[in-house]
Amino acid sequence: MEIKKRCISLYVENRIGVLAKISGLLSGKSYNLDTLTVGETEDPTVSRMTIGMTMDDVTFEQVIKQLNRCVVVIKVIDFTEVPIHKKELLYIKVSSCSEKDKAEVFRLAKVFSLDIIDYDRNHIIVQCVKTEDANNDMIALFNKTFINRVEVVRGGSVAIEAVSTQER
Amino acid sequence: MKGTEIIVKALIEEGVDTLFGYPGGQAIDIFDALYDQDQIEVILPRHEQALIHAADGYARSTGKVGVCLVTSGPGATNLVTGIATANYDSVPLVCITGQVPLGLMGNDAFQEVDIVGITNSICKYAVTVRTREELPKILKEAFYIARTGRPGPVVVDIPKDIQQAMGSEEYPTEVSIRGYKPNDSVHVGQIKKACTLLKRAKKPLFLLGGGVNIAGANEVMLKLAEYTQIPVITTIMGKGSIPTTHDLYLGNIGIHGSYAANHAVSECDVLFSIGTRFNDRITGKISEFAKHAKIIHIDADSASISKNIVVDIPIVADAKLAIEKLLEYVSPSKAEKWLEQVTEWKKANPINMDKYEGLTPEKVIRYINENIKHPIVATDVGQNQLWTTQYLELESNHQFLTSGGLGTMGYGFPAAIGAQIGNPDKTVIAISGDGGMQMNIQEFATAVALELPLILIVFNNGYLGNVRQWQELFFNKRYSSTCLTYRKSCQKDCMNRDKCCPKYIPDFVKLAESYEAYGIRITKEEEIAKAFAYAQEHKNAPTLIECVIEREANVFPMVPTGKTLDDMIMDC
């Protein structure tokens, strides 16, 4: 049985306790999540979750069934095999920055298309909107370059079905 | 109209005639609203756990939705075990819990708990009402969700200020929930595939679970079995799917199943299962379960299909609708040899307790089979339950109430109370052990107050017998915390069991009498008839029949954990 990364998009009721219900359902069945994001949609009564998880086919099928039988779940879409756009927001704050460090950050930003969104005398904040894997690479790179001076926060991926592109 | 009034209106509109309630500060307004009406009888059990088991027994025995009404905090948390019990066994319940006013929620107010958060993983749906406006809609949805699809318990948490708030008197007549659409059709293609598979089968077998009883598919199932001449086995929840005295019926499967049933499932080549979850109690070693068989599985709940056992032909449908469809396409089986073989197994390996002399559970249950017409029997959990599943004969559904999935001790007595309330003209019997009987013993007060003619059978062996049996067989007779005659002055590892044990406490007969119920203790086989006659003479209160049985009697046959189903300890 193949264990692989999965992605699902979940439409749920936008109500108190729904996130707890979904995460509780998954943890209660011992399913481990990689990422989970949630936000209101164009319809304010509906929220949409993007959930990433790594598991085999049988377990994944059970997850989908369990989610589908949940009253607060309106629709489950499996994004694992369909063309989607999927990105994750990542902030990296570098502290104790010298002028030389700042120049290095600006150089990195240019090469990797990152946005410098804030800085002061000692700090600099970089915003990075990429795939999870690409963000992992960025974190590794910054960690290596600015040892023990990096603060990272990332948001978990959001995904939407592609319209014209086929790339995943 | 006040919130409490629309709640009462909703109950009446939903056809509720009986409500199991225990008042408290955050439910007092609803109880006040119930005081003036006479369409709903309000039952007051003596503990909320017993309350929900009674509602559960009422629901299982009548097929209607059971309704609970309790206060916030401890009132609500005392429901938890009963909610999980009902959830496992797909029992439709609506549990209304009072809640502190909206403004106090989250402040750790007196008697505040997040009951929705607590019960989310053990019920079909749980919701807090947050506006007066949505109250009628949520109640309508609660009843709909509880009774449709795979039924289950629904928790509706209603803050006190919403109970008091004024609002519309309108109770909706229609339900539309975008996230909940129970399946009301049958995939004919899958049915045809199943029929083709059955036609080719040389050793076909029906495995019926609780879904058949819940869907009320008993009559059509009997028709299907008789038409196809395919033998039938059941889970304990499925017992009664077809009459247990029928020639085609081989018994229960599982760790205490019959020889014929367990061997049939191990040897069949097509296993046609309906309404079962393939719980570990029935499969034995999962990799060896029905190893030679193609498996067809009908279930109302798609998540029950291919969860434990991977099936070849899944059919998501209500059992009754699916069986009716099957009857259109199926043809009689030509597997006469197989039928002969399984019938031979059944005849050669009956279950009995012949190795024990005198008064045995088997004899008591056989007395019921022979002398009481169409009784409703509730069991507790443990050996008493297993013996009942082995020996009790059933004609149909709504007749046998047992906590199959969760295995809740203390279930039997209150469930029988609920069943008797819902079925005043039937003989209702609760079968318990001496352990479980004590878990909700306070319900004598409820049963006596309501003048219920229940018959309570207590198999008293002075042990938590099922665990003791395991300790005997697998823990070298180290009876850790299972002896109920133990006192502090006893030797911890006492070896002279039976000989100089302290007197059993409580004295069940005196206890019954202290509640103004009736009690009789029997120790001999010859006394069984006398005890039942005594019970039947006293119709104004329950009668407890304490059957003092062999202390170390075991439930056999038995499949030890991890073994295959046909690897049984017979010993009978």
UniProtKB/TrEMBL annotation, chain A:
GO terms for molecular function: acetolactate synthase activity. Keywords: Amino-acid biosynthesis, Branched-chain amino acid biosynthesis, Transferase. Residues 7-81 form the ACT domain. Belongs to the acetolactate synthase small subunit family. This is Acetolactate synthase small subunit. InterPro entries: Acetalactate_synth_ssu, Acetolactate_synth/TF_NikR_C, Acetolactate_synth_ssu_C, ACT-like_dom_sf, ACT_dom, AHAS_ACT, AHAS_small-like_ACT. It catalyses: 2 pyruvate + H(+) = (2S)-2-acetolactate + CO2. It holds the Pfam family ALS_ss_C. Its EC number is 2.2.1.6. Catalyzes the conversion of 2 pyruvate molecules into acetolactate in the first common step of the biosynthetic pathway of the branched-amino acids such as leucine, isoleucine, and valine. Dimer of large and small chains. Pathway: Amino-acid biosynthesis; L-valine biosynthesis; L-valine from pyruvate: step 1/4; Amino-acid biosynthesis; L-isoleucine biosynthesis; L-isoleucine from 2-oxobutanoate: step 1/4. PROSITE patterns: ACT.
